[in-house]
Design goal:
2 copies of one chain form a homodimer. With about 325 residues, chain A is of the alpha/beta class. Chain A has 12 helices and 12 strands. At the A-B interface, helix 4, helix 5, strand 2, helix 6 and helix 11 of A face helix 4, helix 5, strand 2, helix 6 and helix 11 of B. Strand 2 of chain A pairs antiparallel with strand 2 of chain B, so a sheet runs across the interface. The first copy, chain A, binds a DNA duplex (16 and 16 nucleotides) through helix 2 and helix 4.
Chain lengths: ~325, ~325
DNA sequence: TTGTAAGCGTTATCAG
DNA sequence: CTGATAACGCTTACAA
């Protein structure tokens, strides 16, 4: 009964031509039409529960209504929140959201970029795993897909991200103000702009205070990396604070210090970055910097759909938790 | 140069007809073809970097290669992990994954079900927010979409879920074995099968032990609900353990007890359900039941793609954390 | 303001 | 084993 109703049956029922039905649906606001016909068309549409077939529409228009989010790991709370921001805006504008989980694999990421080409995606929110796939990206852009990089910086493409430098600087200043001096920094991967920006902000603050980091170590944005690197630090015992490039690494650091029987924040202070939603439930509460993941997703999707993609820098906010003790 | 290469150009370059190219791509394993032509076609395909257009293919085939996941909240770690399971299997089979975030709204969920009709989705992994949208579901099924319910039970549809009853029973037995006797149960929404099953398992265990719950309260699967309900319990001070229907509620309970200055696990024991990934990082570690979210997603997607949808019940596992003290 | 008709890129049917 | 041809359902010039 339903399921195979096309624009022709709607047209027939309304006593008009298919093109008229199409015009009603796509509200070509230039063209005006008799209110009577328009009403008849609408009546027929919901009498038959008609929904235009996406594939036919996309084929004709040479463009789908799919918004894609390419990200390293959808099960990472930060990215899933960002994805939710994208989805919510997309849905509001009648678009579908495709998830492209690159799984931290450049290959899978590349593969997805090609799929999006075939999909004729309307827009893509792209969070590169590490070094972005430039050729894939520009191929996509040339094909007419709108493109915005999120949470990362890629030269030549508009990017929506948080104020990593400023946030990191503020955090470092706070850590210094707590009295910590022998600070180690666990940076993320050198290939990720976000990591570089956070390191930069950290360095700026220390420089300004005439201090310098005891050590800076790079590693992936994971708990495990945070743990391993911190274990080494705990052994050498020369640090009084560990500042990390994201909350995951901070978590690893906390576990490492726990295993080494070093009290936090009195023995060693710890700070993270991102304010991953559930970290609020940790005890002691993690000192970190809030990055508005949801909002990044919303802004990115909004730009895509308004056809006005441009760089945007969203403010971050220091979260004074309990892993750095002021005036200890 | 690329971006507008169609099957015709590939055919031209390979010196064959479009149909032959199509046959090569869709490997009609009934039809055999000269290895020579097949090789020429492949050569042309990657010389031109040809990728068939999804919309054209879907229009012709009357079926897309999209796998959709309809879920209440993608930013909930449990669901995002499940979604990742779906995506990983889908990707492996050349399918795209669409995220349909119902945002706990029946309306949005219904809307998405219609969109999936228009999208001619190949398959749908459906996690209803509460009462499932039966008409929408059967319309979708009648349209030819493969359908599997995940993490919930909906009569008349195959469902992939965890052994909630058994897991909950085991958990309750464990809590009893710890010596807790005045146990309150914070159940999820009455409309959600998962919540009902967990409550059932809990009841079975208590019955078998000749005990009975001090109280059973229903509420949404949220931290806030867990907090509010626990605050009331803390006031009445008649309970020595709070068992909740999921980890979120357990988290709320922990905060409420903290605010009421009641020590966990000595004053009151707490237990959750799901083993949401990051709960490992809580201190004290949450006593809970592991539900294999990733695997549920993988199995559901696997069934969809193998065209063999059937009920599946995945095993759960008790996680002895630190919020219930054995032999206290 | 509305209708006619062509064609988007693929695949399935049917001949050869 | 391969090629011509006709759709799939929709939108958009172009006519009327």
């Amino acid at each position: 009964m339903d399921g195979k109703v096309t624009i022709r049956e709607v047209a027939a029922l309304a006593g008009v031509s298919p093109s008229t039905v199409s015009r009603v649906l796509n509200g070509n606001h230039r063209q005006h039409m008799t209110p009577t016909t328009r009403d008849r068309v609408y009546a027929a549409i919901d009498a038959l529960r008609y929904t235009p077939l996406s594939s036919a529409r996309s084929l004709r228009r040479q463009r789908s209504h799919v918004l894609a989010v390419v990200l390293p790991d959808i099960s990472n709370p930060f990215f899933s929140l960002l994805a939710r921001g994208v989805e919510s805006v997309a849905f509001g504008q009648g678009c579908s959201t495709m998830i492209c989980n690159s799984d931290h694999s450049l290959d899978k990421e590349r593969h997805y970029l090609e799929i999006l080409l075939a999909e004729q995606a309307l827009g893509v929110v792209y969070i590169p795993t590490s070094t972005p796939d430039e050729p894939g990206l520009s191929r996509l852009a040339r094909s007419g897909a709108r493109l915005v990089v999120a949470d990362r910086f890629v030269p030549g493409f508009p990017s929506v991200r948080a104020d990593n430098v400023g946030g990191s600087r503020a955090l470092a200043e706070y850590v210094l103000s707590c009295g910590y001096r022998r600070i180690a920094y666990l940076a993320g991967p050198e290939t990720v702009s976000t990591a570089r920006e956070r390191l930069q902000g950290f360095r700026e603050a220390l420089d300004a205070a005439g201090a310098c980091p005891v050590t800076v170590k790079h590693g992936p944005f994971t708990c495990e990396a945070g743990y391993e690197l911190s274990i080494e630090l705990a052994r050498s015992a020369r640090v009084d604070a560990i500042v990390t490039a994201n909350d995951m690494m901070a978590l690893g650091a906390l576990r490492a210090l726990e295993d080494a029987n070093i009290p936090v924040p009195n023995g060693v202070g710890v700070a993270g970055f991102d304010h991953t939603p559930w970290t609020t439930y940790l005890r002691p509460q993690l000192t970190t910097v809030e990055v508005p993941a949801l909002q990044i997703g919303e802004v990115a999707a909004g730009q895509l759909l308004s056809e006005a993609t441009e760089d945007a820098c969203l403010p971050t906010r220091l979260i004074e938790g309990e892993t750095c003790l002021r005036c200890r």
